[in-house]
């Protein structure tokens, strides 16, 4: 949902860059966020098709990130605006943009809240363990690779932004309504800005698709343990695609309803995204705290979630689905229901 909101804002920002008289409206952002319907259709496809689609999307994301990291410092037009090509290191490392009424030290601590939102995407590998025939190998490998590559390349991207941004206040208060687009317009030509935005939008679409799959599989796992009202409907597996299509469309419907907060203003929709990220981490922590005191630790894994207590550990999502026993591809899920 936050990913689709960001994609929508980028698309409308690109339109504003091409037509300076155009100002994006809230209803237009909302209509574009129904990209989730496309994601829901794709997420209901057979597992083999999903694997191929997401492999292509992940590869494109990785390549696009490298291209953007190279394009921004190579194509910046700061010198044509009477500025040095890059901001001095003394400014990048010695100046603290507070952004709040709190003292600089507290502002630095508050900046780590953004990490919560960003890191919430790295839990997808273990949410998707049920889609893997070799989850005990593929999931840990994916967790390590996504964290390592995201951390390293994300750090380089942050450095590039820090050395090329002109006015942070102007980025945040731009009429474009999208900070990344506003930042690019400060240090890049219009054509380069649109090119980078295009790469980002395509990458964001595939990322939103991955989020929809992960969210629907978590919903399926909760429903399988009777954690939701009407769980018997949400845990059903489609006979044709052998995927939990009901859980997919439940997530899609809830997401679209929640995005109505767009009409409540930036504060309302921003609070929704922030609470969602923090809640995800609190749920994981609460699930572990519930489970750990009542389980022994076998040699092959850090946790052992029993079937008896798995229903109470709703915070960990597919807890016993990952740790309690080997799992199977979604093509065989209906045999267990």
* Rg, nearest Å: 22 Å
- What structural category arises from helix and sheet content? mainly alpha
Number of helices: 17
Low-confidence stretches: 296-337
Amino- and carboxy-terminal Cα gap: 29 Å
Gross geometry: globular
- Topology as H/E string? HHHHHHHHHHHHHHHHH
Account of the protein in words:
Helices cover 65% and strands 0% of the residues. It contains 17 helices and no strands. The longest helix is centred in the middle third of the chain and has 35 residues, at 190-224. It is globular, with a radius of gyration of 22 Å.
Summarize the structure in short:
With 337 residues, this protein is mainly alpha-helical. The chain has one domain (2-336). Helices cover 65% and strands 0% of the residues.
Task: Set down the secondary structure blueprint.
Layout: H1 2-18, H2 26-32, H3 35-43, H4 47-75, H5 89-94, H6 104-111, H7 113-119, H8 124-127, H9 135-164, H10 168-172, H11 179-187, H12 190-224, H13 231-234, H14 245-258, H15 266-291, H16 307-310, H17 319-323
Helix pairs in contact: 1-2, 1-12, 3-12, 3-14, 4-9, 4-12, 12-14
List keywords for this structure.
337 residues; mainly alpha; 17 helices; globular; disordered C terminus
